[in-house]
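User: Just a sanity check before I run the rest of the batch. Below are the structure tokens for the first item. I only need the designed sequence back.
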């Protein structure tokens, strides 16, 4: 199977053609770096300058696609060039091959070439000086350093800057990706929060409306129907008021509009009173003297509201108790109701209420339990929640 060589880059081809044309121009003008009388010139014919020039120009076309191969072949061509009259363009193109090998080559090549160039510079400085014992011998090491060490060091610096820029770009992309993930998560969390608020605010009133409208339709009693219509109207008005409050929070209000106050524990008495109006035998036992963080008060209010809604929809006739206690840096909430088959009309339920309570409690780092229990008066359904009462960010 034939090996397919990589296609040279266009800019590399331009560099190779420019170097070749420049070398041919110098060759045509008869310009060289050495004379035939220099002792190191082995091939005195001027046409011997052309093979190293052409080979080095060909290596330039592969400077970025095959940098290591180009450098090795170029080094062989430069070795041959030192035994001819020489061409300045061949030397210049070789320095570019050293630079390209460090910049575009694999990491091992990028690390080794500067070390090899440095050792060669030292060797060609010390050995000629020791052999000839003349200061002019230092020029050999200087030329080797300019041809090999300087382009290698330049390539190493440029490669480090390029790698640092690439790393910075990757970090920026990762930061942007994390920011987008955070934004998406924030949107999902906000949607879930608004869904809980909407459910908790409206479910209580709509459940009462459904139950009393069913009673009014099923009983042919004007007094009962009138009483049921009164309860329906009251729950409709309260539900619309809470809906307007929620919409006011979502709407981009002007600076002259004050934000609506969030429900607090002081409003739990009204919740219990409304539950009595809707037909529940509800009692309240609250002891929460110390000030609580606003998120805790809002969560406690919604938990009690949803628990009363579930009792209204599912509980059998009997006493519904709401108890709040603040003790040892925590607020405990217990709502119990008779467990069993409900007599009379009931409202449909989807189970979203308990899910919403569990999510609220989890956001504040509290504990939540719900389920049937045995008591001295029979089986009851209980909702028990413990919320941290200290100031702090939700988990």
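Assistant: Here's the designed sequence for the first item:
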């Amino acid at each position: 199977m034939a090996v397919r060589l990589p296609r040279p880059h266009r800019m590399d081809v331009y560099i190779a053609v420019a170097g070749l044309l420049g070398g041919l121009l110098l060759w045509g003008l008869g310009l060289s770096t050495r004379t035939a009388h220099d002792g190191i010139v082995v091939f005195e014919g001027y046409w011997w300058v052309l093979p190293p020039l052409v080979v080095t120009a060909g290596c330039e076309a592969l400077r970025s696609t095959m940098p290591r191969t180009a450098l090795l072949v170029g080094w062989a061509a430069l070795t041959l060039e030192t035994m001819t009259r020489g061409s300045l363009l061949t030397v210049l193109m070789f320095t570019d091959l050293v630079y390209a090998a460090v910049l575009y080559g694999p990491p091992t090549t990028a690390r080794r070439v500067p070390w090899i160039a440095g050792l060669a510079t030292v060797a060609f400085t010390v050995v000629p000086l020791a052999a000839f014992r003349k200061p002019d011998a230092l020029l050999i090491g200087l030329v080797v350093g300019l041809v090999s060490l300087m382009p290698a060091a330049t390539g190493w610096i440029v490669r480090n800057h390029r790698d640092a820029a690439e790393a910075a770009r990757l970090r920026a992309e990762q930061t942007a990706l994390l920011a987008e993930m955070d934004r998406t998560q924030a949107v999902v969390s906000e949607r879930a929060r608004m869904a809980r608020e909407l459910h908790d605010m409206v479910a209580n009133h709509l459940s009462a409306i459904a139950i009393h409208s069913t009673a009014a339709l099923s009983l042919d009693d004007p007094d009962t129907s009138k009483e049921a219509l009164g309860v329906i109207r009251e729950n409709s008005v309260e539900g619309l008021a809470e809906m307007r409050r929620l919409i006011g929070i979502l709407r981009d209000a002007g600076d002259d509009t004050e934000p609506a106050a969030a429900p607090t524990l002081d409003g739990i008495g009204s919740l219990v009173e409304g539950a009595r109006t809707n037909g529940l035998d509800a009692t309240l036992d609250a002891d929460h003297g110390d000030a609580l963080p606003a998120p805790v008060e809002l969560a406690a209010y919604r938990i009690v509201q949803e628990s009363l809604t579930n009792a209204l929809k599912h509980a059998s006739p009997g006493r519904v108790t709401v108890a709040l206690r603040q003790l040892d840096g925590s607020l405990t909430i217990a709502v119990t109701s008779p467990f069993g088959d409900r007599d009379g009309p009931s409202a449909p339920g989807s189970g979203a209420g308990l899910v919403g309570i569990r999510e609220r409690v989890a956001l504040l780092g509290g504990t939540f339990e719900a389920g049937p229990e045995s008591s001295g008066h029979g089986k009851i359904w209980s909702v028990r929640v413990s919320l941290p009462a200290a100031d702090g960010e939700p988990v």
